[in-house]
Fold:
Amino acid sequence: MKEKERKGIIEKKQKPHHGKNIKWFRKQKGYSQEYIATLFGTNTSQQQISNWENEEELSDEILSKFALFLDIGISWLKEAILDDELGYYSQDGYGNTNFQKNDQMVHAVHDPVEAMEKVYKDSAKKIQNAYIDANNRISESYNDAKEVFQNHQKKNRKFL
Structure:
């Protein structure tokens, strides 16, 4: 694959997704879709917020309203590359900070850096295990092929 083609694939994968960014910051703030809908006014439903969160690209008008409601700069919504895979922090009713990933609470945390380190270590461990599994399957296939080849050689020697 040519460098230009590879670069295009990388750039395509890293294109910001406005809706995912809105969802990520909304969850960081602990706001529900229903709450955000009320901030937009009577003509906006929870379903409309959900639809926007699934849109890759939104108008500047919509993004500026979300930026205002979420108290962040519009550039975060337009340019950041965020999604649930990165996880987010939320506060429970007891003042505890929880780290969540893919809408599942990973664990309560006192140190956000510690939480992110745990997520990345867990991901690295999964990758390492997948690599070991693949190597084991390759070794098994190699050994099976070697055994077939050796048996074939033994059979052919009997006729010589």
